[in-house]
Amino acid sequence: MKKSMLFIVLFLLAAGIANAQKLYLRLGVGGGISLQQYEGLSWTDISSSAGSTSLEIKSMGLGGGLNANLALGYMLSNNFGIELGVNEFIGLNNKVTYTETRTFSDYNEAGKLSGMMLQIVPAIVITPGLEKINPYARLGMIIGILPSVKEQYNATLNNTIGDLKSTTKTVETRKLSGGVALGFTAAAGASLNLSNKFSLFAEMVFNGITYAPSKGKITELTVNGVDQLPTTKTIDKEWNYEKKYDGNTIYLIPDSSPNIKPKISMNFSNVELNIGISLKL
């Protein structure tokens, strides 16, 4: 049995070497435009004043950003191939503001949110196999590992009571992480063959992917320039996201343990334009 398995492995290796010209390496870069955050979890720009409140929903998905991608492919025939890609996605900042004006005070908060993740992309490739300009389609799934979301807030509170005026400035940074993001990808593009070895490609890509972090923490907290983290209780600066959330249980959590919050889902879906070079091995 062991000899049979060894023979099969050696045969497959030999077949792979014999067909090495069907292997290719693809290297590209690009940028994407974010799609709308799902309803029910929309970051917002809010303006309110005494006696009136206005709320404006923004399209604030986290898919807008830059990416670098590397893929190893193998053409099983002139028209069909398989690929394993690795994408590094770096999201651009999304802005959100909150303004509140009262009789004796006004509060202004500006926030920036961005996400990033390393994506593993197994896919299939379909092409007519033309010699000079060769169109293709690629379909696959996305496995986002090491995903994270960064939130930064700068807030200013001004109080005025008679001749007494005070200003409090707060800076807070949060990091959401943990878990794995899952989604799918579909691309349409064309390659321009420069030689027997090299070709250029350009493609439009749709990525549908969401991410539900499993935990979060405050990584920076200052009030008027004074660091507050050393004296902040664990329950106030760390938390876990759980699907089954009971608001009554949070009163039983000790100060030295992370808090519990209901599970949330963030949209990393986007439409990308990628360009790059492909090398036949």
Would you give an account of this structure?
The protein has a domain at 23-147 and 179-213 and 265-280: Porin, CATH 2.40.160.20. It has 281 residues and is mainly β. Strands 1-4-5-7-8-10-11-17 form an eight-stranded antiparallel beta barrel. The protein has helices at residues 2-18, 234-237, and strands spanning 23-34, 44-49, 52-57, 65-75, 80-91, 94-101, 105-126, 133-161, 164-177, 181-193, 198-211, 215-223, 226-227, 238-242, 259-262, 266-267, 270-280. 7% of the residues lie in helices and 64% in strands. The longest helix is centred in the first third of the chain and has 17 residues, at 2-18. It is elongated.
Summarize the structure.
With 281 residues, this protein is mostly beta strands. The chain is 7% helix and 64% strand.
Largest sheet: 8 strands, antiparallel, barrel
Q: Look up the CATH topology of the domain at 23-147 and 179-213 and 265-280.
A: Porin
Strand content: over 45%
Radius of gyration: 25 Å
Shape-level CATH architecture of the domain at 23-147 and 179-213 and 265-280 = Beta Barrel
Global shape: elongated
Poorly predicted tracts of residues: 1-20, 39-43, 51-57
* SS content category: mainly beta
- CATH class term of the domain at 23-147 and 179-213 and 265-280: Mainly Beta
Oligomer: single chain
- By DSSP (H or I, 4+ residues per run), the number of helices equals 2
Distance N terminus to C terminus?
Answer: 34 Å
Mean pLDDT figure: 85
Going across the major beta sheet, what is the strand order?
A: 1-4-5-7-8-10-11-17
Q: Work out the helicity level.
A: under 10%
Order of helices and strands: HEEEEEEEEEEEEEHEEEE
Number of strands: 17
